[in-house]
């Protein structure tokens, strides 16, 4: 099977990640930070190292880097932990349901209001103007995806950050598709929240993610319980990361994530991105000469590509590709707003997302199969 569904989770994982997970399970799988014995201390050391490594990779502070189960958890902890009664939020028209649904739930509960700024893929200036025009006195937060999970569109985060700063707004990013692939630095981008999955571009195991926080925000807790600290106190510790990390941590996942971050550091996010962009360019070129195949991203870059075969539901194309040996995601991609923005709400799309392990040959084989499918030679 050739795996082109890396935007959902990267596969395969690097060997160093396998080894880190196995080592932790074999050699020191004690509960980190919960006991005075040496194995617990060793586990805690590994957790600290992974936390430090994540923090330094993204220009954050170690103690304000909180482990999460995935990007969705990080987003929920950020939004629900920080927004207050009467706050107004602005999001983009490319958001994943991980952003839209928590906000919709808070809106239904009467806590907040939010508006969706239309992203104009061809005009950064218009996108910024669309965001700016929605700012009102009660606006407190600008929260956006960095890269669209459906179309690969990159939002102008530097300019958005400047806009947020100018208007005194908090600024948060859903970095589900950009962490490990695009440059991301808490300081440079003036980020208050950085929500990321560990299991995508950082090549860690599923069940890992992180929330990085600036000094300006300390979210309320959504889950309270044992933290291994201040154990005689009835109230949840107020300091980070303990305040937001109740219960036993995913030790093996965190060790794997630490190894994943080292792997990405060794190769370099820029090198990974240019490899993926080159593959997507090749795919776009190949598909441009196949009648009946429509591709969606018009920008020069892009690390993933959405496409449709004329007269065929995206799920059907996905099923046929599966028969040809390709794993892609087809249909809707948990991002209703993005499909509406690009006019694909009726059909969905087939999404091809390579990783650092994907090759030109694999792309060539995919183009060949898509040609056969478009010609209805594979049904
Ligand atoms: N945001 C975006 C843009 C995504 O693409 C995804 C997952 O694909 C998520 C959030 C949710 O990530 P996770 O599956 O780690 O919760």
Q: Do you know the CATH topology of the largest domain?
A: Aspartate Aminotransferase, domain 2
Architecture of the largest domain, according to CATH?
Answer: 3-Layer(aba) Sandwich
Question: What is the topology, as strand order, of the major beta sheet?
Answer: 2-8-7-6-5-3-4
Overall 3D form? globular
Mean pLDDT, to the nearest integer, reads 96
Number of domains: 2
Strand and helix layout:
Elements: E1 2-3, H1 15-27, H2 38-57, E2 65-68, H3 71-82, E3 88-92, H4 97-108, E4 113-117, H5 124-132, E5 139-145, H6 157-166, E6 170-174, E7 193-197, E8 209-213, H7 251-267, H8 269-288, E9 293-295, E10 305-309, H9 314-323, E11 326-327, E12 329-331, H10 336-342, E13 349-352, H11 360-374
Parallel strand pairs: 1-11, 3-4, 3-5, 5-6, 6-7
Antiparallel strand pairs: 2-8, 7-8, 9-10, 10-13, 12-13
Helix pairs in contact: 1-7, 2-7, 3-4, 8-11
The structure holds pyridoxal-5'-phosphate.
